[in-house]
Design goal:
Blueprint (H helix, E strand, L loop, with lengths): L37 E2 L5 E6 L3 H12 L2 E2 L7 E3 L4 E7 L11 E5 L2 H10 L4 E5 L6 E6 L5 E6 L4
Parallel strand pairs: 2-5, 6-9
Antiparallel strand pairs: 1-6, 3-4, 4-5, 7-8, 8-9
Length: 154
Amino acid sequence: MNAPSSQSDAPIELIAPADSFRAVADRRPRMAEPLPVKLVTIDHATLPAAAGLEIQLDDFYVGLLGFQRALPLESLIYHAENFDLIFEVIEPPVQRDSLRALGIEVPSLAEMEQQLIAREIPYTRQKSLQPGQESLLLLDPAGNWLQLTECRAI
């Protein structure tokens, strides 16, 4: 037994609007999208680099990791979402005060690992003492240690 329907079987018709709609261009200035990487520091980071590595550093930090190169191009400064990475260009041999790795958060550790494999960049996968926390340790073209972790939204 079918229950009587209160709706008719007639097709639905749209009511014509009283005023005609016109889209207006939004003239507000467009905000830039946030950069995909963050530095795990409390302030701008400074690393040493030997002179002549500017092209390799641009390819690594801008092309691979997703930093943005600062203007003017004479200085080696890369913008992350939260802080800047500043390189002090010095003549070789480069002497380092410490071998502590600079922490960088990337959107996807798995995608970054695939890109490192494709570019044949050596890295080490490191597991933390806390469950589920992994990172990739690698050297940048200037010989600085980096620790890549995945940025997890809360």
